[in-house]
Amino acid sequence: MNPETVFFPLLLTAKTCAVSLLLFLLLAVPLSYWLAGKRGIFAKAVELFVTLPLVFPPIALGYMLLVVLGRNGWIGQFLETFGLKMVFSQTGVILAAFVAGLPLVVKPLQAAFSTPEARDLEEAARVCGLRNFKTFFFISVPLCTKTLLAALLLGLARASGEVGITMMLGGNISGRTNTLSLEIFNSVSRGDFDSAAFLCTILAAFAALIYVALYFLQPKRI
Question: Which residue range is the domain that position 168 belongs to?
């Protein structure tokens, strides 16, 4: 087992998970709150795109993103004018992880923000003069703290094990875009089963930590 084949995928996966977690907090949480309060056609369309990674094959979704974000795609061409390259880069790997974990963060939080109890307290806060921004941070989010933490953990778990979308956007380039999950595939392909087993052990340990954290976040029965 070559340590170099283990160290880089581990480092890239840790970096991908850290940035994805930050994106979940900055984008997924406000998006969940917005979707919880909207019922229009536009909101339903956004919800459809958010839910797509749960119901659409990852490799097919990755291809669609590759077409849109590639050099011939209109978004890809626009981004390249600013020097941003999404395809076959670590940025693409992070985007793939974020897209894969997004529905697992948004859907539980959307349900939590939509409960009658949460809506009643938010309305009471607004009647008392609290602005929407402060209502979100001081009323809505504290009410859903456990759901928020659980959703972030689920999204993180999904991001750490993403393969299909990452392979399409990142390209599985050794030493550049090969995450732990992709390196397991590479190790098996070249017959390096010791490296594959070691990488699986790392992912299994990470999954076990997430499971333990989710267990303690569950409401305890009396």
Answer: 3-216
